[in-house]
Amino acid sequence: MSTVGEVLALIRDRRDVTRAEIGHLTGLSRTAVASRVAALTERGLVVETEQAPSTGGRPAALLSFNADTGVVLSAAIGRSRTRVAVCNLAGDVLDLADIDQQPDLGPGDLMPDVVKRLDALLDARAGARVYGVGVSLPGTVDRVRGASLDSPILPGWDGVELRPYLRELTDAPVVVDNDVNVIALAERSGERRAIDDLLVLKVSTGIGAGIITGGVLQRGAVQAAGELGHNKTPAAAGLPCRCGDSGCLEAIAGGWALVAELGRGGVNHVRDLVRIAHEGDADARRMIRDSGRHIGEVIAAAVNLLNPAVLVVAGDMAGAYEIFVAGLRETLYGNATALATRVLQVAPSTYGDRSGVIGCAAMALDEVLSPQAIDAL
């Protein structure tokens, strides 16, 4: 028999539904439907909207999910920029702020600033109930402890639990995951929700992949699935990587490597590289296209293995999407099988530079609005 949480999931999925439709879809009696809907309306999670078209007799009221009854908080933490947001319960961004930080800043210095910025955003939403918090980090994440497990990008963060910092702000559940995984969740929460086999490529300072197969996000045995940037490639043979090894894809195609290779004042991040590429800088344009070529060679094996329907390009490098993808397509389609690429679409991320915070919100909402969590209320 469907629970209160399962009825809410049905209403969220179908947007507008009548009590009779709920009964038909769940097999619940009229009384059981009424009691479950009453529990949800008392919490403010469901509201009655305009009347459904009448087929004779009194028109039935439509039930809708009330996305404005509370908020979730997002913090997408990066090496040189952290973006924080307040989102409604549909995952829509209500308020947004950026924190530009010095690279290699530790959690003890950055996290209090994150909490302060989120608190300031919440001031504009006085009285809003915080249902949950989603946080993303580059590198492998220990989701149980809510801490970085292995991140060359954020030295000093490994093993540091982030939930205690956020307890100053809210006692709502805090969920932590890898930055590319949350972008994959963002893609699945929007117009690509019907695509069950999806590969997300994030190219910024580092390189990572988010993998959805059969509609399920794949994290791996130790949460390390998608560490594409540290695959070995002949093109990087002998080149040192910041992970301590050599010959990694990142060492020749990651944003940090390109910026170091260019060695030009005022170009300190891949965002700067993208900017001067749009201004017509020939070296920047060549390097971005070559980065796409190198990544295409390596990701072709993943396309053969996973056979995704869509390859989404995200991260700061996507700011030069056409230049980057021109190189990517060249080697991807040259190295992957014709069958694996027959229906493959290569596309930019749906939400652009908001993908991180929207994905953090989607991750938090999956946790706090799950049937189990709602039933626990």
From TrEMBL:
<dbReference type="Pfam" id="PF13412">
    <property type="entry name" value="HTH_24"/>
</dbReference>
<dbReference type="GO" id="GO:0016301">
    <property type="term" value="F:kinase activity"/>
</dbReference>
<dbReference type="InterPro" id="IPR019885">
    <property type="entry name" value="Tscrpt_reg_HTH_AsnC-type_CS"/>
</dbReference>
<dbReference type="InterPro" id="IPR043129">
    <property type="entry name" value="ATPase_NBD"/>
</dbReference>
<dbReference type="InterPro" id="IPR036388">
    <property type="entry name" value="WH-like_DNA-bd_sf"/>
</dbReference>
<protein>
    <submittedName>
        <fullName>Sugar kinase</fullName>
    </submittedName>
</protein>
<dbReference type="InterPro" id="IPR049874">
    <property type="entry name" value="ROK_cs"/>
</dbReference>
<dbReference type="InterPro" id="IPR036390">
    <property type="entry name" value="WH_DNA-bd_sf"/>
</dbReference>
<keyword id="KW-0418">Kinase</keyword>
<keyword id="KW-0808">Transferase</keyword>
<dbReference type="Pfam" id="PF00480">
    <property type="entry name" value="ROK"/>
</dbReference>
<comment type="similarity">
    <text>Belongs to the ROK (NagC/XylR) family.</text>
</comment>
<dbReference type="InterPro" id="IPR000600">
    <property type="entry name" value="ROK"/>
</dbReference>
